[in-house]
Amino acid sequence: MSKANILGFNIDTLNFESAVEYAKTTSGQVITINPEMMSNPDMTDIVNSAELVIPDGAGVELALKIFGHNTHRIAGIEFAYRMIEECAKSSQSIAFIGAKPSVAEQAVKNLKNKIKNLNAVYIHDGYFDDADEIINELKCANPRLILCALGSPKQEYFIQKAKKLLPDGLFIGVGGSFDVWSGNIERAPEIFQKLRLEWLYRTIKEPCRLKRIFPALPMFVLNVLKERYIPKGV
Ligand code: UDP
């Protein structure tokens, strides 16, 4: 599989359909990588040991362009939704872990109205203290797809631990997706998505996100430009 290495992070440079096809036959960890994650050096090992790293967000798409890859972003929420559809089609079971109490239940209820044969075998909120207890319960439920909406980096750490104990499971870190599927939060209108300005819409709606973007996002672009155009050691 073709990969790009940017700021030390390996990113799979495939399109949406190829990512789905690959994920259907893979187990392990799927990371939907964004500039925030790539600004955290502690994430390098986790990302580079993931089974699939897909470029989520306009910032990663831009970074890939700067390095000469014409790869389009894959929105994590769309990828996860498609994987739910694929599992439902092939009668494979799914676990939903994350978000505030009752949000995951509501999300599953809404998803079941849209996706026939969705088999949710485990649902839990994301505010637990004992990850081992959740992992043990997951082992009993034995789902094929495990969606973890704990926010980053919590979900990535949880998945890294859990995947070792559920070798046949496919884990995806899905951030705030349950909030959207439950109807609690609206996704940015299509025009913002098309203009690659989903981050701007979310920041306007939730101004507290501003500190997550600034100065991280401009610094990320500067670091990518530096890595691409300024020889090492200068
Ligand atoms: N969350 C959780 N457990 C925690 C912290 C956060 O389940 O300990 C959930 C939170 O309720 C929200 C999601 O994780 O549903 C994070 O959403 P956010 O939009 O911040 O994620 P992003 O996609 O930006 O990483």
Write the layout of secondary structure elements.
Elements: E1 3-6, E2 9-12, H1 16-24, E3 28-33, H2 35-38, H3 44-48, E4 52-55, H4 58-66, H5 76-89, E5 93-98, H6 103-114, E6 119-124, H7 131-141, E7 145-149, H8 154-165, E8 170-173, H9 177-181, H10 190-194, H11 198-205, H12 210-213, H13 216-229
Parallel strand pairs: 3-4, 3-8, 5-6, 5-7, 7-8
Antiparallel strand pairs: 1-2
Helix pairs in contact: 1-5, 4-13
Descriptive report:
By secondary structure, the chain is of the alpha/beta class. The protein is built from 13 helices and eight strands. It is globular and about 55 Å long. Strands 4-3-8-7-5-6 form a six-stranded parallel sheet, sandwiched between helices. The two termini are 32 Å apart. Helices cover 48% and strands 17% of the residues. Helix 4 packs parallel to helix 13. It has one domain: PrpR receptor domain-like (Rossmann fold). Residues 98-100, 126-127, 149-152, 154, 175-176, 178-179 line the site of uridine-5'-diphosphate (UDP).
